[in-house]
Design brief:
The chain is α+β, with helices and mostly antiparallel strands. Helix content is about 65%, strand content about 10%. It has helices spanning about 20-25, 65-80, 90-105, 130-155, 160-185, 190-195, 200-225, 235-260, 265-290, 295-325; strands spanning about 5-10, 15, 35-40, 40-45, 55-60, 80-85, 110-115, 115-120. The strands form 3 sheets. Strands 5-6-8-7 form a 4-stranded mixed beta sheet, covered by helices on one side. It has a two-stranded antiparallel sheet with strand order 1-2. The protein is flat, with a radius of gyration of 25 Å.
Length: about 325
């Protein structure tokens, strides 16, 4: 840390000198234009630079399958707009993994493909992406997935169950978008300013999006169980639907709290969500009693469904906790 004294020049202009070592390292010299970004009682300074497409290179010679897919996704989330994947020879399996990665990301397409290189590019304008809209979309998909997964289980609707599992890919794509936007705000104050949101709010959205992604995973798990089971009888089916309703209520209140503009309203909704989790335990005990009369295979499968619904409520409770922190007074 270095300190500087603020001086007054011309009778009304406040000036302060920049540390020479920082200026040299960042190419700042006489005549260089710098940008200032006010954040409450802080002022961020950065050298002015043209907005350019960031390019990244990755040697994929030793990567294949899931490892290659995850590597591509990692570079996307890290903020690269153009990614060049290179090797002495790109194999058929590697091309397949790269295609799977691009299909799992929003706005990414193959730009160039040769024997030793595949170049992919993000075609979306990052400045036009909205982390608020992405999280809102994740909420809607996760809520519908959870509802449809339980209905598919109770009504033995295999088509609906398969549709739920397919929608999990949509949640994952949006999760990668949120992660990419959030990491951009950590690197650049300009990115945060273009979003029109404080970086703390971006952190809250990112944390909540992670919980929504997990809820989507559990909805997909319930759908998988639905595909392997027969229709559930009335009493057990009603109990599962009631358990879902309680879990969905926690999620609804938690997300409303996260998006609430007024701190008092956000706090009220978040506390309501946290308190609603207690109702989950009562329904869980009811289902446990009903499962005593079922065969072991059914009891085990339904037990896993109950666990997924309970975990979904817990994840929603984490969102409520984030909403409480977001609404709390700042020091």
């Amino acid at each position: 840390m270095e300190t500087r004294k603020v001086q007054v020049t011309g009778g009304s202009t406040f000036t302060v000198s920049l540390p020479k070592s920082w200026a040299t390292d960042n190419g700042v010299s006489a005549g260089t234009t710098v940008e200032f970004y006010p954040e409450d009682d802080s002022l961020l300074l950065t050298p002015q630079s043209e907005v350019q497409r960031t390019k990244g290179h990755l040697d994929v010679s030793d990567l294949d399958g899931d490892r290659l897919t995850r590597a591509v996704m990692t570079m996307y989330v890290s903020g690269f707009d153009i990614i060049s994947l290179e090797a002495n020879r790109i194999t058929t399996d590697q091309r397949r993994a790269i295609r799977e990665a691009t299909q799992s990301l929003v706005g990414v397409e193959v730009l160039e493909e040769t024997g030793d290189k595949v170049v992919i590019q993000d075609l979306l304008d990052s400045s036009e992406l909205s982390i608020h809209n992405a999280v809102t979309r994740m909420r809607l998909i996760a809520e519908s997935m959870l509802h449809d997964a339980v209905v598919a289980l109770v009504e033995d609707d295999d088509d609906m169950a398969r549709d739920v599992r397919e929608r999990d890919d949509d949640v994952d794509r949006l999760w990668f978008v949120v992660s990419r936007i959030f990491r951009a705000t950590l690197r650049s104050p300009r990115a945060a300013e273009e979003l029109g949101l404080p970086r703390e709010t971006c952190f809250d959205y990112h944390s909540s999006a992670r919980q929504l992604e997990r809820i989507g995973d559990h909805a997909a798990k319930i759908a998988s169980h639905a595909l392997n089971m027969e229709e559930i009888d009335g009493e057990l089916g009603e109990a599962l639907l009631e358990l879902h309703d309680d879990s969905a209520e926690v999620l609804e209140h938690a997300m409303d709290a996260l998006f609430a503009d007024e701190s008092d309203e956000a706090t009220r909704l978040a506390n309501t969500a946290r308190e609603s989790i207690l109702d989950i335990d009562e329904h869980t005990r009811t289902i446990d009693e009903l499962l005593r009369e079922r065969d072991p295979h059914t009891a085990q499968s339904i037990g896993l469904v109950v666990d997924s619904l309970s975990r979904s409520a817990d994840y929603a409770g984490n969102i409520a906790e984030t909403a409480l922190q977001k609404a709390a007074p700042r020091p």
